Amino acid sequence: MTDEPLASGDFPKYPYLPESMKYITRYLARLDLGHMDDRSVEEELGIGYAELRGLIGGRLISAIRDGISKVDDRYSSQMYDAVSMASFIISSIVVRASNDPYIISRFSLAEGRRSERFLLDELENNSMAGRQVAVYVFQGASGCSLTMDLELTVPCYLRLAPQYLAGWKLVNRSLSNGYVKVLEHEVGHIFREAVAKKIRGIIEGMPQPTLDPSLKGLIGDILKYKPKPPAVITRPERYPPCINVALKKLKDGENLPHSARFMLATYLLRVGLSEDEVASIFVTAPDYNERVTRYQVQQISGRKAGREGYLVPSCRKLLTEGLCYRDESCGTITSPLQYGGHTGGRTSASGPKPDSPKEAQP
Ligand code: SF4
């Protein structure tokens, strides 16, 4: 990593970096989160407890409801630094106390989006100092060096880039001396995901905290914004274990990898669910975006375009992707579509074949 180019005013923008955490620990060391009171908060942070709780609540609710943590700039200079970072740390602790995978992933991603905005500002202001900060925090979040010309080594690119998206595939990129050029908005995308992963790791590594009742009350407030899973899956016993495991993880709010989402979409379309029904099951994904999800399901289905849709991955492929949960009910099948004695088949633009295990069938 380069010499540290961060000033203390940068810490609230990137509060998960070790130097930021070290800075805020000084302020929080004497606060007892199990018994919060005005006097101790005032002494440490210069604002009352009710105000601090309001900031934490605002940060959490914007994160869970809107998908991006609110940037509050009412405060200035050093006071803002401490208050903002305190709200990040205490929000993270409240999220940990919720013990809810959706809340943890959603909050982490919302903080990633917040931080991404600051990073893009650094890049867009086109100064050497701004770029040094961007390169430094990128490495701190992702563990990979980014050059000042915004290039990544091939191994880093392969590790960080979302290669299931066509434009990101390595074969579609130009390489120079073992480096891949990345555009500013792509740096933002990679950075956001890396920050989300880092924050998720920090939160999941925390011990279960004991919280003041008023902080604990925030958990109920944010859970109100957790989406309810749709009731389109009515006969899960007809589905193979791989599908049920992925559906359960999705319902619990876990962030499924692209391969698992692809498996679910291809399978559920093939067994007779409509595009709208399939799109709706992803509402509980922490990074859910209705427009993008509908578009992706349409692409997988191919029905609107009048072309053949994508095939359901084979059991062998799902095994290599870590998505197979074979049990004795699978027997010797080679495709999830053969589960329960069905003969399986290809996904077709005209919809499922008569022998597919339709959801509504007994
Ligand atoms: S054997 Fe096939 S159908 Fe059964 S869990 Fe594995 S991938 Fe799914």
Strand content: under 5%
SS-based class: mainly alpha
In the residues, how many domains can be counted? 2
Task: Report the count of strand segments.
Answer: 3
Level of helix content? 40-55%
Mean pLDDT: 86
Briefly characterize the structure.
The protein has helices at residues 18-28, 38-45, 49-66, 77-98, 101-124, 128-142, 154-160, 184-204, 213-223, 241-251, 258-270, 275-280, 290-301, 315-320; strands at 151-153, 175-176, 179-181. It is 51% helix and 2% strand.
List keywords for this structure.
disordered C terminus; 3-stranded antiparallel β-sheet; globular; 362 residues; mainly alpha; 3 strands; binds iron/sulfur cluster; DNA Cyclobutane Dipyrimidine Photolyase, subunit A, domain 3; 2 domains
SSE map:
Layout: H1 18-28, H2 38-45, H3 49-66, H4 77-98, H5 101-124, H6 128-142, E1 151-153, H7 154-160, E2 175-176, E3 179-181, H8 184-204, H9 213-223, H10 241-251, H11 258-270, H12 275-280, H13 290-301, H14 315-320
Antiparallel strand pairs: 1-3, 2-3
Helix pairs in contact: 1-4, 3-4, 3-5, 3-9, 4-9, 5-6, 5-8
Bound molecules: iron/sulfur cluster (SF4).
